[in-house]
Design brief:
Length: 363
């Protein structure tokens, strides 16, 4: 654990390797990095005058020797954790409406509050923007580690952030996360449960409104959806890949219901799209659940407030966020962390799913 200096401006100087009785100074750091003392001062005050490569070399030398000035002592100490980062590639308006991330962030905050730590949250427009942001956060010692979310197939963040040495936990299946310690929900069996439930009710034309095709978890769900239909001997389901907003969910639902052999059941990748789909069904005079069954992913209060109430795949998102954060603290502490699956989402049947009208009167 780092010990703050007794007087302002005095470097924090634990024993240097190989010289246990001597105090490390800024001069030692400068010598180890091959720069002047002034360059060390510029680097630690985040001022211009040194290149990024030189700044990184200075920080590496300081960490190796166990030295830091007052303002940086805590951020250089691996045992001192004040702030963790979370960057989300979603529009701000959508994030404010999406119950999943609100619950997930509340779970993160519940652990941070116990440790008197903070969350640095930023919305980004692209994964490339996130890479730049994470690099700046880490190089400027603004964070002790990060939570990485929404992994893509061949995600471009993996290589640069691993090379950076960023302590991070990936929220996603280990097949997607490139060796980062991961915490995830096993979506494939949950998708299979949803499809088998609808098939058991008598549905033979089942469609899926999914999230962006590039997202890894969307691809995993799509594959499980098709595989389960095939196992049940049903025709391949129709997919509409879209965003996660209500507007996009409504548009996808409308396009499905305008086809000649429209589905009798639709599975949605989130609750917002399912609620929007329910509105479109009412608009088009399609009765839910007599003519159309709807099933949402990520159960939330929204699903319990609609009429009819929405069947959903439910899991404890608050606890999910808390577990991710607990694992991140283990990573920051240097502990070995294995991939950790959390509870698989489970089906909560409600009033929006029933046997299709052609199968007779509902029990």
């Amino acid at each position: 654990m780092s010990t703050p200096p007794s007087t302002p401006g005095t470097p924090h100087t634990p024993n240097a390797p190989g010289a246990p009785s001597e105090r490390v100074t800024i001069k030692d750091v400068a010598a180890a990095a091959g720069v002047s003392k002034g360059a060390v001062s510029l680097a630690f005050n985040h001022k211009s005058g040194v290149s990024e490569a030189t700044r990184d070399r200075i920080f590496a030398a300081a960490r190796r020797l166990g030295w830091a000035p007052n303002s940086s002592a805590r951020s250089l100490s691996r045992q001192s954790v004040d702030t963790i980062g979370l960057a989300i590639c979603r529009p701000a308006r959508l994030l404010g409406l999406e119950p999943f991330y609100m619950e997930f962030i509340s779970g993160i905050e519940s652990v941070l509050a116990e440790r008197n730590c903070s969350l640095l949250l930023r919305l980004v427009g692209s994964l490339e923007e996130e890479i730049t942001l994470q690099e700046r956060w880490w190089k400027e010692r603004q964070i002790a580690g990060s939570v990485l979310v929404d992994f893509h197939r061949r995600d471009p963040r993996i290589a640069p952030l691993r090379e950076l040495g960023l302590p991070a936990v990936a929220v996603g299946h280990p097949d997607l996360t490139g060796g980062f310690p991961s915490v995830w929900t096993d979506d494939a069996p949950a998708v299979a449960e949803a499809v088998r439930y609808l098939a058991a009710l008598g549905h033979r034309r089942i469609a899926r409104v999914g999230g962006p095709a590039g997202l890894g978890h969307s691809a995993i769900r799509a594959e499980a959806f098709e595989r389960t239909l095939e196992e049940l001997g049903l025709d391949g389901g129709r997919h509409v890949d879209t965003g996660f907003s209500g507007e996009e969910g409504a548009r996808a639902t409308r396009s499905l219901l305008l086809t000649p052999d429209r589905p009798t059941a639709i599975v949605y990748d989130n609750d917002i799209m399912a609620v929007a789909g329910l509105g479109v069904a009412a608009e088009m005079g399609v009765s839910v659940p007599d003519d159309l069954s709807l099933l949402a992913w990520d159960d939330s209060q929204l699903c319990r407030l609609t009429h009819p109430t929405l069947s959903a795949m439910s899991h404890d998102v608050h606890r999910f966020g808390a577990e991710v954060t607990e694992v991140l603290f283990d990573v920051i502490a240097g502990e070995e962390v294995r991939p950790r699956p959390v509870a698989t989402p489970s089906l909560v049947p409600r009033r929006s799913t029933a046997p299709p009208r052609a199968q007779g009167v509902r029990p």
